[in-house]
Structures are given as structure tokens and as C-alpha cells.
Design a protein that fits this description.
globular; 2 domains; Naphthalene 1,2-dioxygenase Alpha Subunit, Chain A, domain 1; 8-stranded antiparallel beta sheet; alpha+beta; binds fe (ii) ion; 4-stranded antiparallel beta sheet; Rieske Iron-sulfur Protein; about 30% strand; binds FE2/S2 (inorganic) cluster; about 325 residues
Length: about 325
């Protein structure tokens, strides 16, 4: 039995599972909340997500092929088209009716921010809104969906945590930061996020200058960081130069202890630097988190008293409380 990833309430939320370009390029398999899924784009251009199990003899459909939006099973060639409907059984007479249970039971999907989002149940919350996505002047930069050997619980805990910056992010922005974290107030942030506001004096080495948009000294950032249940975290960074940089961090549980992870960035720069160059610094920061977090096995403990907390852990405590409420259906 799983610790949290088989919780039924979690199935009623949206998870970013793939970049849409991956699914448009062919059939892929992903695992979400302990369940193997197949993803493909049907003839109407709709992304289909279904159990990765052929209704005929349970072959993994992700091992099949897609041609013109039709998914072909690699075992006996059954074909699945729009909305997962079985449209052809090569071994059967033409007039043989498609068995009622021969179609794919599809899950809800949405394409938003260049990502495929899947909900395994009935959504009780919206995909987080990033208002800058519709604002002229902002560009969006996507990143690969990676598999990290880290529990989604630890990813979210880490992404709302400031105290690790000067210890973990020494190769990027962290070494000039105070180790002391002032008292944090948890407040409502725009678009349903909940978190805190803070100022950061960040290192601005040459590798960071394409991201910060300034060449001199340290970069002063006004930041907000907040969670959106179950696991999403948004960090907004406003530089003195009026440059805004919004990061949406998206841990998606594969199971209790492994996650798919990607992040999306929006920024209102002058577009003079390529997206690839702009994003390198954030990728280096993410790698520092990955190296740290993959050292910590298992799920973040939730039992009272299992973890020692201090004032800097207030955002994590706030998220954990709400996450536990979600798990218990409150
Ligand atoms: S198992 Fe897929 S067609 Fe037979
Ligand atoms: Fe970090």
C-alpha cells in the first residue's frame, strides 16, 4: 500500500505530465499516482490519456505506434482513434462488432502552458492560472519533463523553503544570502496561491546575468513564493530593472518516492536573449535541488513531531497542513 500516492482525493486534481510537443510527436507512456498511462494525440488534435493497457490482451499501448492520430497496438494491431474509440480489429471480419469493452476508458486532459495536464478523477480545482501567459510582453519558456528520484512531498517542501538557499545553491545565486531567515507571514497571493513575500540579495555571476538582465553586482529581487494544492509552487521574482520572472514549479507524483518534474518560466524581457540561454541559470538551480533531494529517501513524514521545525519552516508547515486536509477529504 502506498503512503499517499494512492489517495483517492489526489485523483481529483490536475497534474502536468508531459510537454505537448512530446505527445504530438508520438505515443508516450507516463506513470501518474501509481497508474501507468498511455498518451497520444487523436485525429482531432485532442490529447488522449488512458490506462496503458490494451483492452484486448493488456499489452502496453505505449509500446505501439501512432499514425495520423490512430494508435496501433503492437501486439495484434487493434487501432484506437478519436476519444480512444477502437476503430479497427485487423483479425476480425469487417462486420464483427467492436466489443463494448474494446474502447479506451479515457481520462480528462487539457493542454495549457505547452503542457499536457491529466486528471484521473473529477477535478475539484482548476489548473493554476498564470495571468502573464495571456499578457503581451511576456514570453513563456518550457523545460523538459524529467524523472526525479524524489517524493513530490519533498519537492513541494523544498520549493517553499528559503533556508536552503545559501547551503544548496552555492553554485548559482545562494552564496551571498543571509543564512538567517526573518519571520515569515503566510498570506493569500494572487490566483489562489498561498505563501509569502520576501526580498533576496542574489549573487549575479556572469551565468546569471542573462536571467537577471543586469550586469553589475548583486541582483536585488522582490519575490513571492506560494503553493497551490496539491504540489504546485509559483515563485515570482521582480528585479529593480522592472524585469519580472515567474517560475511555475510542477512536481507530479509518479508514486510515493519518484516524481515527474518540470517548470515553466514567464518573463517580460526584451526577447534579445534566446529562451535557451535565458533558462540555463534556472536549470542549474534546479539541478542543485535535485542533487540535494535525491540524497533524501522516502516520503516527507507528516506525523506530528516527526520533523523538527523552526520559523523558516512556516511555509512548509502551512502547506503540509492543507495537504493533509486534502488527503483526508476536508
Ligand atoms: S493486446 Fe493489443 S491488440 Fe491484442
Ligand atoms: Fe532550491
Amino acid at each position: 500500500m502506498a503512503i499517499f500516492s494512492d489517495n483517492l482525493h489526489l485523483r481529483n486534481h490536475w497534474y502536468a505530465i508531459a510537454n505537448v510537443v512530446e505527445v504530438n510527436a508520438g505515443v508516450i507512456g507516463r506513470r501518474l499516482l501509481g497508474e501507468n498511462l498511455v498518451l497520444y494525440t487523436d485525429p482531432a488534435g485532442t490529447v488522449i490519456a488512458a490506462p496503458d493497457r490494451c483492452p484486448h490482451r493488456e499489452a502496453p499501448l505505449s509500446a505501439g505506434t501512432v499514425e495520423d492520430g490512430v494508435l496501433v497496438c503492437c501486439y495484434h494491431g487493434w487501432q484506437f482513434g478519436s476519444a480512444g474509440k477502437c476503430i479497427s480489429i485487423p483479425s476480425a471480419d469487417k462486420d464483427f462488432p467492436i466489443p463494448r469493452n474494446g474502447h479506451l476508458p479515457c481520462y480528462k486532459t487539457e493542454v495549457r502552458y505547452g503542457l499536457v495536464w491529466v486528471c484521473l478523477g473529477d477535478p475539484v480545482a482548476n489548473i493554476p492560472v498564470i495571468e502573464q501567459d495571456a499578457m503581451p510582453g511576456f514570453r513563456r519558456i518550457n523545460n523538459p519533463v524529467e524523472t526525479w528520484a524524489v517524493s513530490a512531498t519533498r519537492l513541494t517542501d523544498n520549493f517553499v523553503d528559503i533556508a536552503h538557499f545559501p547551503w544548496v545553491h552555492t553554485g548559482t545565486f545562494g552564496s551571498s544570502q543571509r543564512t538567517h531567515v526573518p519571520k515569515i507571514d503566510i498570506v493569500d497571493l494572487p490566483e489562489g496561491f498561498r505563501g509569502y513575500e520576501y526580498d533576496v540579495v542574489a549573487e549575479n555571476p556572469p551565468s546569471a546575468q542573462l536571467t537577471s538582465g543586469q550586469v553589475e553586482g548583486n541582483a536585488n529581487r522582490f519575490m513571492t513564493t506560494g503553493y497551490y494544492l496539491p504540489f504546485t509552487v509559483r515563485s515570482t521574482i521582480a528585479y529593480q530593472s522592472k524585469l519580472e520572472h515567474i517560475i511555475l514549479l510542477l512536481p507530479t507524483p509518479i508514486d510515493d518516492v519518484t516524481s515527474n518534474f518540470t517548470f515553466v518560466v514567464w518573463r517580460n524581457d526584451d526577447f534579445s536573449v534566446s529562451s535557451e540561454d535565458t533558462i540555463q541559470f534556472d536549470r542549474m538551480i534546479g539541478l542543485e535541488d535535485k542533487v540535494m533531494l535525491e540524497k533524501i529517501p522516502g516520503v516527507l513524514p507528516f506525523e506530528k513531531g516527526a520533523l523538527a521545525n523552526t520559523q523558516s519552516d512556516k511555509p512548509s508547515t502551512a502547506w503540509r497542513l492543507k495537504f493533509q486536509e486534502l488527503l483526508s477529504g476536508k
